[in-house]
Amino acid sequence: MKRSILTQLSLMVARRDFRLVFTCVLALTLYDFAVNLIGYSLADANLLGSRLANLMRVSSGDYSSLYSWHYLYAGNANANIGPLFSVLYPFIVVFPFGFSYMQDRNVRLLNHYILKSGKKNYFRSKLIAAFIGGFLIIAIPFAVNLILSYATFPHTYNSPLQYAQSLTGDRVDRDTVFGAKPFAILFVQSLPLYNMLYLLFFSLFTGLLSAFSMALSFLIRRRKILLLVPLFVLFQLGANLSGVIYDNDNMRFFNTDILDYFGTDAFYGQSVVFISVLLGMFVLFIAGSYRYAVRREDIS
Description:
Elements lengths: L1 H13 L1 H29 L5 H7 L12 H4 L9 H11 L7 H7 L3 H8 L1 H34 L10 H6 L15 H6 L1 H29 L5 H23 L24 H24 L5
């Protein structure tokens, strides 16, 4: 089993898709850091442009008003790359390794791998490699941004958000299932640990989605485009449904925007039931697809 996993990991790392997506995510996080760094430099030179001035609300040379590294971290829900990343994310989780099973079939290597390692080991190793690949795609680039932001920007609680109200839930304007900041005690006691915890959650979630994409490919033998559709639709549906629920005063608001559960300073209304059911559905689908693939007689 171990040898089969290492084989699949080596194949994944060698794939152009994996390297391209990893490079793109790393470039996005470095771009986010660069924008904030340039903003600080321009603020010191009294040349801060209107766009960054609105973003950072800094008066000339007054560093006490500069935003905290926590708010400027790329994993924050209000990051510069947020809107673009939310659109790209459903594709990011698929491309690193999601197409590899289809490729094994197309180049007629599937029977070779199965004869060498066995059905169970082959499909397990595919899922585990996809999970690890998805985890690394997020963990490393965002960890680099986290370290750079922590080492460069002020260690304050300054932000356009009212932290005191956000901690307690007093800033919410709708009846909601959860208005306070998740893990508020850790947020107050240690911002670095708070952000690392969210990064861990986000990386694990991405790994799970990558494994889901791999499991989906066990059921789809052709048309790679079909692997990209389900997650894109799910994330868009969740984001739009959240707005519909928020606008309906007759409903108690709960947040269905999935990425809001994995970004710091995200919009309130996180529901433990909603995210638990969603994660459970992903796990059950992966387990079901694995059992189907192993038991299927016609592999070739």
